[in-house]
Amino acid sequence: MLAPFYDLLATAVYPQLTPKMAMKLGSKYKFRELEARHWEQFAEEAGLAKAATRKRLQQLANELPTAARKLQAAPPHGFVGNAVVEQIVQLIEQRCTLTLRRLV
């Protein structure tokens, strides 16, 4: 069930790599093309309730940016000041904001 989520960011911060995800969501392989209907299509294909899927996506999109910033700042990881990690966190923030807008 969570397998498609691992790929939402995988290579997006590396411009020399394709923005295409390894797995499609709905009928789309590119995050920038995802709309609410594609998440509904994903839910249907996965045998999940559309409303519950939308609610969970909204919850994750609201929580992930804060969780990413906390992880970035956690001392044992050494991510503070790491440019690639900062790009990843910014991308998480941008994509979560976009996802919330598109799910309305």
Automatic annotation (TrEMBL):
Alphabetized UniProt keyword annotations: Kinase, Transferase
Residue ranges constituting the HipA-like C-terminal domain according to the UniProt record: 2-66
Pfam families associated with the record: HipA_C (PF07804)
Protein name: Uncharacterized protein related to capsule biosynthesis enzymes
Native organism: Comamonas testosteroni (Pseudomonas testosteroni)
